[in-house]
């Protein structure tokens, strides 16, 4: 696999994660567009992704995934986040980088485990 930088991994990871969350919500019979959007924020906001990261680091990530997370988290972004602080945004970027890495590695089993565990964590908030 090509060695992508953290922001590139986060870019594809963000898109894939967003799609999986939308699919999850549709399967829960959330079908009105406004309700879909409001429910999706619970899973896709940088603040909530950063909350999930705390659990993922302690209980879930492999050493390789933790390395990818740090690469994404530590990558310098060219813009300031709109709705959160830089530290929270960076954690979210690291989370998305891991998803992007697993997606590009075609590791669908681990990718589904990660997304399902993240959903389980964030459903508690």
Q: What can you see in these coordinates?
A:
By secondary structure, the chain is mostly helical. The chain has helices spanning 6-27, 33-44, 46-59, 63-74, 86-104, 108-123. It has a single domain, classed as Ribonuclease iii, N-terminal Endonuclease Domain, Chain A (Orthogonal Bundle), CATH 1.10.1520.10. 76% of the residues lie in helices and 0% in strands.
Number of domains: 1
Distance between the termini: 36 Å
Number of strands: 0
**Can you tell me the CATH class?**
Mainly Alpha
- CATH topology name, in short, is Ribonuclease iii, N-terminal Endonuclease Domain, Chain A
Helical residue percent band: over 70%
* Low-confidence region ranges: none
Output the helix-strand order.
Answer: HHHHHH
CATH architectural arrangement: Orthogonal Bundle
Largest β sheet strand count, sense and barrel closure = none
Structural class: mainly alpha
* Global morphology: globular
Q: How many DSSP helices?
A: 6
Integer-rounded radius of gyration:
14 Å
**CATH level 4 superfamily:** Ribonuclease III domain
Please report which band the strand proportion falls in: under 5%, 5-15%, 15-25%, 25-35%, 35-45% or over 45%.
Answer: under 5%
Average pLDDT for all residues: 95
């Amino acid at each position: 696999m090509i060695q992508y930088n953290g922001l590139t991994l986060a870019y594809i990871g963000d898109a894939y994660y967003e799609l999986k969350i939308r699919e999850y919500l549709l399967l829960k019979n959330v079908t009105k567009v406004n309700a879909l959007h409001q429910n999706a924020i619970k899973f896709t906001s940088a603040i909530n992704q950063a909350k999930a990261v705390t659990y993922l680091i302690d209980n879930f990530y492999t050493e390789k995934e933790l390395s990818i997370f740090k690469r994404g988290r530590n990558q310098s972004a060219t813009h300031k986040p709109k709705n959160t602080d830089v530290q929270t945004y960076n954690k979210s970027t690291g989370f998305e980088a891991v998803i992007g890495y697993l997606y590009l590695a075609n590791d669908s089993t681990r990718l589904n485990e990660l997304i399902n565990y993240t959903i389980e964590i964030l459903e508690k908030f």
